Amino acid sequence: MRLSDLRERAGRPLIMGILNVTPDSFSDGGAHLSKKSALEHAFRLVEDGADILDIGGESTRPGSDPVPAEEEIRRVIEVIRELAPSVGIPVSIDTSKPAVAEEAVKAGASVINDICGLRDERMVDVAVSYDVQTVIMHMHGTPKTLGTDMMTGDALPEIKRFLSERAEHAVAKGMKERNIILDPGVGFGKTAEQDMAIIENSGWFGNGYPVLIGPSRKRFLSKYYPGMDRDDATAAAAKAAADSGAGILRVHNVRRVLPYLGQDRRL
Q1: CA 20 to 30 Å from 30, out of 160, 173, 175, 190?
Q2: pTM value > 0.85
């Protein structure tokens, strides 16, 4: 099912539930590393109201090191193969590696979520060859440098320019415009002030494409939502992003976010 069709049916931003099949993700590393635990959590996210499941096998927390594609594939493919035909909603693969993306799509994923913004030409080729919906995200630096190398000044025009250029390049390489989703990359090499500015101007980054915002449990929340539980702060930021034009919200705790959007159950 295409995300645009889901969005029209929902009448609200779509909720992308996060499933990290990793030992070291910043929020829930190790919690869902076994196939059994991963599947249980995935079905819980669906029951809570997720419209999309985003499955990742490599942590991108600040300071993290990459893992080999073979290990990433080992972590996620059997989970995707079992989930895709049974959950009734789109499954996304969260990866920057073309080999992982291709195996995930073969296993049933219908969305590629690329934090590196299609900088790898082979990822463009995979997305075009399999005609899948693709999230193009902006990241300043690498996961290893996220906590130390931040964008400076007014970062928003640079982020928008990057996303527009990558989308234009993808279309030139044969990607259908309907398959493109843009993500300005909250928390990926931005200061707290820049993150909040992204939240408050979410729709501005779209240029006609849907915009995904992923504020979940990130550091900037403690500054702008002081004293709030991290999931409640996430929900508040997600609501602010929705109000400013975000079409997809990527979060860990789906159940906590939906009431902020005026809905407390699945469609």
Answers
A1: 190
A2: yes
